[in-house]
Amino acid sequence: MMTSGPVASSADLFRRLSWQSTVPLEVRLAEHEPGAGSGADRYYMYPPRHAYLPLLIPEIRENLVEIALDDQQLAETNEAEWWFEEDPGDAVGFAPQGACRWHWPLDLIHLHSIITHPAPGASSNGPGPSAPGPSKPTFQPLRLLLHLSNPPADKLMLPNTVESCKANYMNQLREADFVRWRNTSRVTNMRRPDLDAGWDGIVHDDYDMYMRMASRLIPLPHSVPAPTNPSTRPAITDPNGKQPESSYAVRALPIKVYLPDGAPVVQEVVPPLGADGQPTTVLSVLQQHLPLLFPSSSKIPYPMALPIAQGVELPPEAELAWLSSSVCGADGWLRIGIRLIAEN
Amino acid sequence: MSLSAPIPDVTSPGIGDGQAPGPSLAASMVIRPNAIAALEHYKQKDTSKVVVRFKSIGAAPIMKNNVFKVTAGNKYATVVTFLRGQLGSKEGDPLFTYVNAAFTPAPDDIVGNLYKCFGTEGHLIINYSNTQAWA
């Protein structure tokens, strides 16, 4: 894929920023677990958004469990039975997400935590929730409780092994690619070392290693010729004369939208360009698929709720093809959470 | 493809379908009523039916009847559990499933979403095998 030029540089900048984005995490031993309530029963860390809980277990073991438990308790504990739950805490909100799934990237677990708690409404002095300008970052740490036994298998659905997590990740890569092209030939035809470098990059938090895979899979947001003028030269070509694949030319974009309070995931066919040839924007897709929360009759883009991705509020005019290329998760999916706005 | 016999229903015991209880907002945080009503609408489970067609890969046993109706709102994990039952596959026996022979959905992916995005000719193709097709 063409890796030079302004489009590639700009996408690379945002891909690096997303890669470097972390989730402030507090892990505390749950009540009734050995070591709970002691002075050493919690641990703070800043794992990357693209990490998975099974990958964090060794660090949490070393810095929390081995310190809070005595030798006898340690000998009796079985890592395979450990599981995390979001700490419901005292904050007002919708029903908490409960047990944290092993195959969810940390970004998604954090996203559910954010949307569980409605956003404070506009004060009389501050900008309204729909005001243009820099996104408001979320500073709330993600608070997880660590349980050491009795994992709820029906909720967790998978074991907490790294192998199981990797297998799910590889399938999410394929599913995203199938959404884009209606086949997975790009994954199937990739050289094995390049494909494995994707997961290994996540394990080692190594962006360049991860990009060995991602640069071959996730298309850059190159502009495509307008459909009304087919004789226009392509916007950019690579040295071989081939048009590089563009996120604006895929069949559909890999996007999932999450609502609070146990509502089912929203996943629709979202083409990069609308019927009018214009790029699909955040607001257009929300108005089309969640019209009760984003009515097109509204004078302001976000009257009742805010779309959040990678921990920040998305501007209504942002183009989904660009977002899906530049700020998607490490498995190629753009995950958007819908956070309701409180009146006060 | 026309089906002469009625398509059997996959009964869903609700495995992994545990939905969170209703909103527990304190009275001090006020959400506009139409936003709450909108969320309640979107929380509803889709009870419409999706036609699923199971196709064996390799040496996996072929099912006498391989077409079933599944509730759209069900999680993918319920479909796999159902398939295990149909094949007489025991817990621990390897069983791999794929949509369009391309990828394995996450266990909490919703069947209706899979059909919307990946369905062909009115049904969702799920391939199954006793051996892993790729690592």
Automatic annotation (TrEMBL), chain A:
Domain of life per record: Eukaryota
Segments of this protein annotated with the region Disordered: 223-244
Main location: membrane
UniProt keyword annotations, A-Z: Autophagy, Isopeptide bond, Membrane, Transport, Ubl conjugation
Domain Autophagy protein ATG5 UblB positions: 253-338
InterPro entries linked to this entry: Atg5 (IPR007239), ATG5_HBR (IPR048940), Atg5_HR (IPR042526), ATG5_UblA (IPR048939), Atg5_UblA_dom_sf (IPR042527), ATG5_UblB (IPR048318)
Domain Autophagy protein ATG5 UblA intervals: 19-87
Membrane topology: Peripheral membrane protein
Keyword Transport found: yes
One Gene Ontology biological process: autophagy of mitochondrion
Gene Ontology CC, one term: autophagosome
Annotated Autophagy protein ATG5 alpha-helical bundle region domain residues: 163-219
Keyword Ubl conjugation: yes
Description of how the protein assembles with itself and partners: Conjugated with ATG12.
Family classification: Belongs to the ATG5 family.
Protein name per the record: Autophagy protein 5
Organism: Dioszegia hungarica
Lineage, top ranks: Eukaryota, Fungi, Dikarya, Basidiomycota, Agaricomycotina
TrEMBL record, chain B:
Family recorded in the similarity comment: Belongs to the ATG12 family.
Location relative to the cell: Preautophagosomal structure membrane
Region forming the signal peptide: none
Region feature (Disordered): 1-20
Keyword line: Autophagy, Isopeptide bond, Membrane, Protein transport, Transport, Ubl conjugation pathway
Its job: Ubiquitin-like protein involved in cytoplasm to vacuole transport (Cvt), autophagy vesicles formation, mitophagy, and nucleophagy. Conjugation with ATG5 through a ubiquitin-like conjugating system involving also ATG7 as an E1-like activating enzyme and ATG10 as an E2-like conjugating enzyme, is essential for its function. The ATG12-ATG5 conjugate functions as an E3-like enzyme which is required for lipidation of ATG8 and ATG8 association to the vesicle membranes.
Cellular component terms (Gene Ontology): Atg12-Atg5-Atg16 complex; autophagosome membrane; phagophore assembly site membrane
Topology in membrane: Peripheral membrane protein
GO BP terms, alphabetized: autophagosome assembly; autophagosome maturation; autophagy of mitochondrion; glycophagy; piecemeal microautophagy of the nucleus; protein transport
Family annotation (InterPro entries): Atg12 (IPR007242), Ubiquitin-like_domsf (IPR029071)
Predominant subcellular localization, coarse grouping: membrane
Protein's UniProt name: Ubiquitin-like protein ATG12
Pfam families (alphabetical): APG12 (PF04110)
UniProt GO MF annotations: Atg8-family ligase activity
Quaternary structure, from the entry: Forms a conjugate with ATG5.
Organism: Dioszegia hungarica
